[in-house]
Structure formats: structure tokens, C-alpha cells
Amino acid sequence: MTTVDRRDLLRFAIGGAGTAAGCRGTGVGDRHQAVEYPKGTDPTVLGESVNTYDLRLRSSEWHAGPITESGRKERTKAMVRMKFLCDADRCIDCNACVTACKNENEVPWGINRRRVVTINDGKPGERSVSMACMHCTDAPCAAVCPVSCIYPTEDGVVLHSKDLCIGCGYCFYACPFGAPQYPKVGNFGSRGKMDKCTYCAGGGGPEAPGSAEEFAKYGSNRFGEGKLPMCAEMCSTKSLLAGDGEVIAQIYKERVFKRGYGSGSWGWMTAYGEAVRV
Fold this sequence. Notes:
Blueprint: E1 2-5, H1 10-14, E2 24-25, E3 34-37, H2 69-74, E4 82-87, H3 96-105, E5 115-119, E6 127-131, H4 140-144, E7 150-152, E8 158-160, H5 170-174, H6 212-218, H7 230-234, E9 240-244, H8 245-259, E10 265-266, H9 268-272
């Protein structure tokens, strides 16, 4: 048996083949505990190496609430920061991510937490991009919310509390990706509480993580089970990547290096205030 850091298994998890057979963790309370897997396990998926972090195995304290000022100062570079990245060169406009999201979270009729947008349709340079809440580093939706119902967790996932939401719609106008949506069609003030992508991490309300009450309000809690969002899991070309920002940035860099060009890590600069350096 070969012992490696838990974070060394992530690329295998999101590279396109699912979880490696035989992988087992020694606990989810510590991100840096070792994992053993059999010798001879194929360390490459879709031509991408495995030597990086693990996104799947998460801390059991994932749902601790908003980041405090003291907690922000104590964070280190070793901590995982959840992000999305859409590689437009791989997206084939199949809408599997859209369907997976709706099915997994039982999203109400008329709402798509994720959608695929085609740019330059029918023209040279046509690209398709999977679009949803990017869980921004400095989320503008949280900044404008008058009741502070939107907040980031320590893992960088931006959650919201429907118990506090007053349906004012400020977050919808502030979001550069148009992620927050009204669940109903009607006049202002009668369209219900805002709904958006939760990174398959449940909700930001008082409901117990993984409970039926949480699912009814916010959808699936895959994140609490150590799993990635269903949209990224179901992407057949691995255009849509989710997980530790450092990991998916490295995967994108390797792709650009191999093919010799890149159409850009869509939305990355807007959401996270930095470019993927290639």
C-alpha cells in the first residue's frame, strides 16, 4: 500500500472517472489526514495527472456559518476555497448540468439554477458556457442584501437563508451572473423568496444539515457528504469543474498547455478577482 496526502487524490476524482476504486479516508475531520490506495491504480484520467489536492473529502465543520473577522485572519493558504470553472473549449451545449441540477435539487418549475449560454451563436468563435452562481470571493449579492441573509462559509460557498429573505431582489440586480431568481412570476413583492445555486451544500437557514426540512427549502446537501456538486459530476467532457480553486486552476493550466491555447476561464476574474495564470 502507498500512503499519500488526502489532497493528492482530487484530480482523480474530478478528472472524469469518478472516485477511484479502493480509496478510503482515515477521517473527515482533518483535511490533511493520509489516504491509502492500492499500488497500480491508474494515476491519470483524460491525460491529467493526480498530483494535487483532494476536493471530495471535506471537513465535518463545513456548515459552521458566516466567516468572522477573527476567523478570516486565522485562515491559511492550506484551507480549501470552493470555486467553479467552466472551460468553454470543452462545453458541447448538452445541458446535462442543467438537468442534473434540477433533478438533484428538485428545483421548482420555471427556475433553472444553472443554464447554458451560447456566445456568438452560429458565428466564428462560437462558445457555450455553463452559468450559475460562482460563489464569489467578495459576493456583491451579500454586500447589497439589506437583511444579511446571504453569507459565505469558511469553504467559500455563498449560502442564503430563506427565513430572513424579504424578496427585495437587490441580489438579483447586483449579481454579475444573474444567479438569484424569484420562484414565482408576479408583481414586485409577491414573487417569493430568492432562490439560487447552493453548491449542493444545503442552505443557510437554521435547518439541520441533510435534513428533510433543509432539502425542501434548498435542495440536496451533497457537500456535507463529501461530494461535489451534481452539475460538475455529470459533465461528460469535464468542461465544468468544481472544488478547490487551486486544484481546478491547475487542471485548466495543464489543459491550456497541452492544446496550446485557451478561450479563457469564463467568469473567474469577475467572481474571484484574479486570473488563472497560464
